Each structure stands twice: as structure tokens, then as C-alpha cells.
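User: Before I run my own analysis I want an independent prediction to cross-check against. Here's the chain; please return only the C-alpha cells and, at the end, one sentence I can use as a sanity check.
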Amino acid sequence: MKNDLPVILADRFFSDMAVREAELAQVPGAVCPNSDSPIRFEIIREKLKRGDDTKTLRMIPVLMKMLLGVNRSIKSIKNNPKQPKTHIDKPLLRKLEEYVISLGACSIGYTQLPEQWVFQNKAALHPNVIVLTMKMDRARINMAPHVEAEYTVMATYRDLGIIANRAVGFLRKHGFSAQAGHPLNGQTLYPPLAQLAGLGQLGHSGLVITPGFGPCVRISALYTSIENLPFNEGNEHAWIEDYCTLCQLCVKKCPAEAIYADPILHQSGRITYVDNDKCFPYFHYNHGCSVCIKVCPFNQVPYAKLKERHQSRKSQ
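Assistant: C-alpha cells:
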């Protein structure tokens, strides 16, 4: 019976969240999924269902704080102003950026939300997105697969969730409507949004590779009524796709052999390289794995140096 309580509590929590998320879709102006949208993988529910509680229970304190943050991100929507502002001036936007950086975010970008990146049966309150990243403890990630690596991933989810909720509070205080997209259990697929916002490029591991910290980051999003954000155009990091094709290190080093050299083409037309049916079981029983982050050259070598090497190799 001792192992059943976390599962019972999680089921109750996520059932309640599902109701609240469904209500989002009924809000005028909310962005809803289309037929090409992916299904959200319920990672925490799946971990709890699989048992092996010696590892799961070790993370319960940080997990509970994460779930409180997830709950707040949806529950606090009722605090939005009734007639929100839609335009922000540059000094206030700069204050917002300085605020989230002071809280611990490492980069911020702006994009608009395509329907295809909203998860099936979910919705986002607004189409205008502020994307945030937060770096993880690289020394701990480099121990993967290890409990210390797992802890830093969970702690970053927790801390970035706090930042997202506080940033939304800042926006509401200044008259804007906003919804915090918690880094865990969000309503949209974050890596493509981070790429659209100009913060990095999707690698073959399914993670966004950023210029500052490679794939050693977590991502969250703020959906807001602000219509005049400096939305990103273009992608200066697109060369990384070619680098990944030549590198293949995450393919070779993946303990579960879950990252493929050749792309997986989904019915929607979306291309991925990770087989979740192989990845997740190993991930669950081996401290959240993170080996693909550890071995990625962008986690070990400065971005500018790798770009220079790649350009030199291509020119030969």
C-alpha cells in the first residue's frame, strides 16, 4: 500500500489539471491544436505508474514543489485583468527581461504560437509567446546517468517554473494578460518554440541546442496579450542541423539505442530522431538518463569554436 499513495495523489492532481486545461480551450482567442499537433507524454504519471519508488520517492520534495508550480500556472489565470493591455513599450519590456534574468533565466526570445505545437486536447491562452531558458548544473549533468544529474534536471524544472509564474505576475501587475507555461507538463511543445524564438536549434536528440549552454537547458513559455513583442525572424543557428547529421555522437552513445541516425517521419509530417518507446524505460530506471546532453559536443566545447570548425570543414 505504501507505493500506491504517490500514484493516487498524482492521478487526482492530473485529473484536476485536465479539467482546467480543457477549460482553456473555451476561452475566446485561445490557441487550440490542429490535426498535426503531437500528444503530450505524461512523464510524471508514467514514472509513478512504473514503480521503482526508491528513485521516485527520493525526488518527492522537489516534485511536489514542481506540481505546485504547475497548479499555480493554470489556477492563477483567473487573476488576469479583465481588459488587458496589448502593447508594451521598450523600457517596460527591458525591465521584464532584466527581471527574469535576475531570477535565474539565461535567455529570452519571442515568437508567435503555431497551432501545430499545441498538444492535442490542450490550449494556450494567447498566440504571443515569450520563451525562457534556464541552464542546468553542467557538472551534475556530466555525471549522467546518475542521481545527481536527475536531481539537477528536476530542480531546474522547479526553479524555472517559479520564474515563469513570477514573470506572469509582473505582466499582470502592469496590465497584461498572461499564462505561465510551466517547463514541466506544459500545454505546448517547447523545443520548436525555442527555435522559432531564435534561442537555438533542435538537435537530433530532440533537445534545443543553445549558443550559451548547448542542450544543457530547460525551457518554459509565457503566453501573453502583448501583440508588439519583437518576434524573431530567421534562424542563425540552422547550421546546427547539418552539424548533427555529421556528428551522430548522441546516436552512438545513447545507452538505450533510442536515437536514430535516420529520421522518423510522423503522419503529421513532423520529423524526429528519438524513439520514445526505447528511450523512456531506460530514462525511468536510470535516473532520467541525460547521457545525450552529457555527450553532446555543444555541452563540452564553446559554440563559436564548433561553428568555426564546422564552417572550415564544409569549405574544404
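Sanity check: The mean pLDDT is 92.
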